[in-house]
Amino acid sequence: MLSCDICGETVTSEPDMKAHLLIVHMENEVICPFCKLSGVNYDEMCFHIETAHFEQNALGRNFERIKRIQYGTSDNRKDNTQQCRMEINSSIHSASASNSKVSAQSLLKDGTLKHKAFYSENLTKSRKFLKSKEKQCDLSKIKGSVYDTMYSPPECPFCGKIEDCTQDMETHVKIKHANLLDTPVEDCDQPLYDCPMCGLIFTNYHILQEHVDLHLEESSFRQGMDRVQCCRDLELAHHLQQEEDRKRRSEESRQEREEFQKLQRQYGLDNSGGYKQQLLRSMEREVDSGRMHPSEFHRRRADMMESLAIGIDDGKTKTSGIIEALYRYYQNTATDVRHVWLSTAVDHFHSSFGDKGWGCGYRNFQMLLSSLLQNDAYDDCLKGMSVPCIPKIQSMIEDAWREGFDPQGASQLNNRLQGTKAWIGACEIYTLLTSLRVKCHIVDFHKSTGPLGTHPRLFEWVLNYYSSEREGGPKVACTSKPPVYLQHQGHSRTVVGIEERKNRTLCLLIFDPGCPSREMQKLLKQDMETSNLKQLRKFVGNLKHKQYQIVAVEGVLTAEEKIARRQASQVFTAEKIP
Questions:
Q1: N or C: which end of the chain has fewer CB within 10 A?
Q2: Are 265 and 274 in contact (CB under 8 A)?
């Protein structure tokens, strides 16, 4: 590839280059870039620039050439020698130009001067001069001679010292300023020290030590910063953990309060009033909705106040005579029943406006007490009593607590029942009956004894309680046994009898305080239908709660037995089946 010296155009062959010069440069007017000479052809202009303006044209190349000479290494001396020869050529050309004493003006006046012949003559002289120079001195002296002839002596770029030649300057820089160079100098006699941490080279040991100390200080500072940051991170993590624990404890405390309040509301311990307050609020809502006349409200309110004053139930939720009606039914009908055992006479009490949702335990006690009051065997301990109202029953249980019965149960209910809607269960029924010298005990069916969570052992126990002789007796037996209090989670009922059907299955007869009087009164009809007994009958598959407790009455306690049972109630125990 050939390149045009004027415009830099690149062509592939010499004929193309001649065509390029003829078309682009020789047919156009050529002007000297230094003195504005014109009117000559291309070859003449090239000769003019080489002879008249050599120093101006080569100034930039000389600066670059001197820089390479100053910082060249021994590894590329052959290249430097060749470069020096080129420099000598340029110098010889300059000298030849001055010896020829041909000016641009004489060149213009002599139109017949031929550029090629003149240039060939000068080239021959230059070659002869080069050969004589190579014979007189070596390559390094020629290089220094050329440099000294054209330019001033070199100056050290670090300390400003001036040397005679480039070689001396290179030696000066390598020796005096080796620590400032990028790479160490092999020929330097001074010892060199490598930094063990970063690899930097030093000529002075003390400077190296200060440099290493800076490394250590930086490392120590970074370690200190890392420790500070680590401490801050630990403090932040500890703070976040404490905050999370505080939020978790706060959430747990809130959930516990909500659960406790829920249980308080469920068991009537939320200080929202007792039987009296609930009855009045319920009747007021009935009046507001138009289901109760205001006069009826005032009449019932007066009856309630009278009942609370004397402590006796007003009997408005009582249904009597059901046991007798059941006896007649089983005698005349019930062909699918083989045997039936009934308790003594018992009245049914259902919940009213004042105790709806929480009064089942109190209503079951009223049923049980109504049976005992009709049994002459209990006249000694229950003489002169009537069925009490619910607030009176609460007061009687509190009296039993004050006597020393069941201190643990009293503590759980804050030793207070009056004015609350607190639920009562088997323990409170046992405590109240024992304080009245009624002998009873608790049986705990704490887990199922049959398939699918059923309790067949419970049915067998009730059957054994009511029947002493199963075979050979009458079809319907009215026993002298009081009804049985039956408790499970959330509700309680009263067992008044048991059926043994012809297929040998057992069925309990149960009074539920949740059943209203209008349903119970259907059992009093002479032509009672079998469907009416559905609300009383409970088969084995109907009782599937996890746990059941019963309170069974056994007789009357003496004063000494009452004291002994009061002492025993400090730690409550029950018979467990199984």
A1: N
A2: no
For residue 437 the two structure tokens come to: 């010298």
Pull the structure tokens for residue 300. 């019932």
Q: Model pTM?
A: 0.60
- Which sign does the torsion angle of CA 102, 107, 109, 114 carry? positive
Catalytic residues, by residue number, are 360, 491, 512
Query: Mapping DSSP to helix (H, G, I), strand (E, B) and coil, where does residue 318 land?
Result: strand
Bond before 578 cis per omega within 30 degrees = yes
Looking at residue 19, its amino acid is A
Number of C-alpha atoms within 13 angstroms, CB side, residue 345?
Answer: 9
Q: What is the DSSP string of 48-100?
A: HHHHHSHHHHHHHHHHHHHHHHHH--GGGHHHHHHHHHHHHHHHHHHHHHHHH
DSSP category for residue 387: P
One-letter amino acid at 336 equals D
Count of CA atoms in the C-beta half-sphere (13 A) of 316:
11
Q: CA dihedral in degrees (390, 395, 397, 400; nearest 10)?
A: -160
Q: Is the pLDDT of residue 27 over 50?
A: yes
Q: What is the mean pLDDT of residues 541-547?
A: 96
Residue 106 has pLDDT above 70, yes or no: no
Q: What is the mean pLDDT of residues 492-501?
A: 96
CB 520 within 8 A of CB 458: no
Positions of E strands within 378-536: 438-445, 476-478, 484-488, 491-501, 506-511
Q: What is the DSSP letter of 23?
A: I
pLDDT of residue 26: 60
* Contact criterion met (CB below 8 Å) for 400 and 431: yes
